[in-house]
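Thread: Modeling a multi-component assembly for a lab meeting

Hi all, long-time lurker, first post. My supervisor asked me to bring a structural picture of a complex we are working on to next week's group meeting, and I have zero experience with this. I have the sequence lines for every component (223 residues in total). Could someone generate the structure of the whole assembly? Inputs are pasted exactly as I received them:
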Amino acid sequence: DVKVTQSSRYLVKRTGEKVFLECVQDMDHENMFWYRQDPGLGLRLIYFSYDVKMKEKGDIPEGYSVSREKKERFSLILESASTNQTSMYLCASRGSLKGYTFGSGTRLTVV
Amino acid sequence: AQSVTQPDIHITVSEGASLELRCNYSYGATPYLFWYVQSPGQGLQLLLKYFSGDTLVQGIKGFEAEFKRSQSSFNLRKPSVHWSDAAEYFCAVGADNNDMRFGAGTRLTVKP
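Re: Modeling a multi-component assembly
Sure thing. I ran the full set together rather than chain by chain. Output:
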């Protein structure tokens, strides 16, 4: 089975810090995605990538950036964390449309 | 752009009762439709998906969903709910070479 691993389950960061959320997949998938999940809002797409060094903005990219230097790794970066970025962050990987697989999520708290 | 509406934020059913979770979508072409389940503290698990063909789709854990193009709906059903089905359920729509969009989710509570 495809495995998507998010490096941290829980993170607590201070306002203004630069935060890196890491995601690694082990099935050579080209497509990777970052979503944030908030109560009552479901999952909202932040950024996605169709290939190494390629990135596309999703619906809510403001305050975030991403890095895809290697095919298996897709990093989400909060340039200067703010309290409104406290959320659950979910990474997903897709080899074909039928193959979306999600990581377990990182719950980020910004204080 | 595609969008998904789940009209029910929270549903409570008794164990053993039937369940239907509603999902309506908006998309210009034939959509690919999904239902995911998320247990507390967990990631999302795919329950079932529809791409084409038979409009009644069977999934894991005894769930099924029916695609109704005329109603732009993809409702999830289960004939008899178990306590372990308590979770949050997300409907999603996608298309080939395109990313997925999710509904806001429906939280299911199961009463003993």
